[in-house]
Structure formats: structure tokens, C-alpha cells
Amino acid sequence: SPASAGNDIPGIVSISTPSGESDEELMPRDTQGRFLWIFERRIMPFLYQGLLRWEWRTLLFASYFLLVALSLLFAVAPSLKEGDLLVQKELSRRARFMADLIVELNAENIISKAESRSDIPDSIAKAEGVTQAVLVDLDGRVIAPAARLNQYVTTGPAAKLVVLAREAFQNGQVKPIVTPGPKGVILAASPMFGYSQKEGKNIPLSMGLVAIDSRIARNGVGKETIIYAEAIIYLGFFALILALVIYRLTLKPLEIINNQIDRSLKGAHQEDFSRECKFEELSQLQDVIEALLRRSAAAQLAENQKESGTSNISIADECLHSFRLLGEQMSHGMAFCDAERRLLFMNSPLEEISGIRNDNSVMQNFPDQARDQAFSALLNDLFDRASASVDGATEEFEFSGVPHQIKMVGVGNRSGASRGYVLTVVRIDNG
Prior knowledge:
Layout: H1 2-7, H2 23-26, H3 31-50, H4 56-111, H5 122-125, E1 130-137, E2 142-144, H6 156-170, E3 177-180, E4 185-196, E5 201-213, H7 221-265, H8 283-308, H9 315-329, E6 333-338, E7 343-346, H10 348-354, H11 358-361, H12 366-369, H13 373-388, E8 393-399, E9 402-411, E10 420-427
Antiparallel strand pairs: 1-2, 1-5, 3-4, 4-5, 6-7, 6-10, 8-9, 9-10
Helix pairs in contact: 4-7, 7-8
């Protein structure tokens, strides 16, 4: 089935039916949804197979040339047919007019029984396309022209028209009869009526018969071939231009994405992908590629920084959560600062010991937040000594007369400089 055929194409189409549910149950009920469902489930799987056999551009250009063929079928051919119908309609009027004129010119001679004086003017008999122009009686006997006098019209479509017209005119029809014949011939028969004293009414006496070959005004096989050839040339040219335009318009967003990927892989810094092209169908692809490139760039940056011993990631991003968790579990005071001596975290015991409030001091210079100048000076000294020593620095200090041991150590050493500092304050008498 088409659905199963589509399922054989990995990454192109995947159509699955839940267990216990048929395709008909999954088909939407509304007309538009049903049409789209049939289009996606029944038609497109066959076309998806083409992507596995031919290049996408081959399918694109082939579809446009198929459009050219369909245009010839549904546009040029109906136009030519409509033109032929107009020609036949006009020639039918012409044939009827000639038949009426034959009757009008010879009516007096027929009524006065002077048949030998009847004739067909050359303007009718020798007109372009006229294959037959005669005046005949109801039995098909030729009255005019004189060259065919007393001959009978017994063969061909003209003879059939004589029989048909005789029955119609005898039954009271007064309008001319126009009918198409084989090979594009247009036949017209116009009645001539005369008064019959015996019957007391007008009866048909004869009829003018005209046959015109419509092929003189219609497009022949050669001319139609030329018309189709010209249509193919013009439509093919414009279809080729349009296909090239669509081809380039489709490829341009992909080229932009490819250039961005190439620049990103070469190390160029890019904040976001360019979304200037309005191509909604590629939005998800751009999102995925952007995320992958950012991860790749971050991983490469981390690897380079690891090799060079540097990192642009702040110490707060790396260690704040860990030291906050540790400080909240400790019973003695602890503080965590960055390389610029700004306070990142202080636990509750140290707030009680130092009188410094964590909420008001975060991201502020820690020594400047000390209420005691001696404690502020001590902190600056500890920062200076801890940054120069791997083991850190230790001092004793009294808070409200209670001695405490203060120890500071640098963390995240980078090129001989600490990226952060951890401070602990423990009462001496408590060990």
C-alpha cells in the first residue's frame, strides 16, 4: 500500500497507525482535512520514493516541465478547440446565408415555373471553401446551376441532408437547416415555399443547398504543430526561469545556514542565527543547529581553557551552589567571595557573629561591609595573604570579646591568582 511504501523511507516519512485503529478511523471528517490526509498518506509516499532515486533539483525541474505539458493540455488545446468551434459557427452562418441567397435569387423563376432561368451566381458557386452550391427540388434533382440540370444528389452527406430537410420542411419547418458533415464540411439547406391552390397553403417547392469545407479556415495539422511548438518554447523558457528562481530561493536560506555553521566551526563568535529569510519550514532546523553549535562552541571553549588553564566561567557559576549548600549545614561562620573580594554568600552563623547582613552585602566589597574598622583591615590583610599562599592565611579576632579563629583560603587558582576565597570563623574555646 502507499502508506507502507512511505514507511520504507527512513527519515522522509513515517506513517504509523495505532493498534486497533484503521486508516479510515484516523481520516479527518472535514473535507479539507480529508483532502490533506489523502494527499499526505496516499499520494506523497510515491513521490517521496523519487528522493531516493533522483536529485532534488531533477525532481524540481521535471515538475516544471510537467507543468508545461499540462499547460499545453489544459490551455492550448482547449483554446484551439474553441477556435475551431468559432470557425464552424461562423461558416455555418455563412453557409446558411448563401443557401438563403440562392433561394431568394431563384424564387421568382421557380414559382413562375421557369426553372431553366434559374442559376447560381459565381459569388456563391466560386466562393472560397464552397464545395457545392445547388438549387434542388424535394427529390434531390438539381435545378441550378444549368451545368448540372436534372442531375440528382444521391450520394454523400448532401444526399442525407436533402432527405432530412425534405421531411422537416414538409412538416412545417421554415428555418434553414445547418449541420456539420464529415471531414469538417458544413452543410446548409434553406427552403423555398410557394402557395398551393390545391392545398390552400404554402408548401415547400425546392431548397438551396450549400456545402463549405471548414478546413480552409481551420488550423491544419502543420499549423497546429507550429502552435504547439511555439507554446512549448515560450512556456518552457518561462518555466525554466521560474524553476531556477524557485531553486535559488530555496537554496539561499540553506546557504546562509551553511555559512553560519562554517564560521561557527572556525571559531567565529555568533550570537544567533540570522532569521532574515522568511522560511518557517526551516525554523526548527535552525533551532536545532544553533543549539548544537552553541554546545560545540562551549565544549571547545572549555577544552581550550582547560588546556591553557584559563576559564571565562565565573567562580560563582562554578562553586556558589556547592559552598552555599556547605555553609547552610555548618554551625560556625562561613563566607564565599569572588576574586574582586565581593561577597557571594554568607551563612547565618557568620551574620550573627559579624553583624553583617547577607542580603544587603551580596556583590558588595566584603571588607567595606564590616562595621569594625579593625575587622575590615583584617579582611583586607587576609585577602592579600591568601591570594599569595596556597595554604591560605589564619588570624585570631575577638567579636564582642569572644575570641575566634579566622581562616581564609583561595579557590580556583588561575595563573597564580585565586578566582575566589572561602572564609571560615570558628570560636576558639569551642575548638
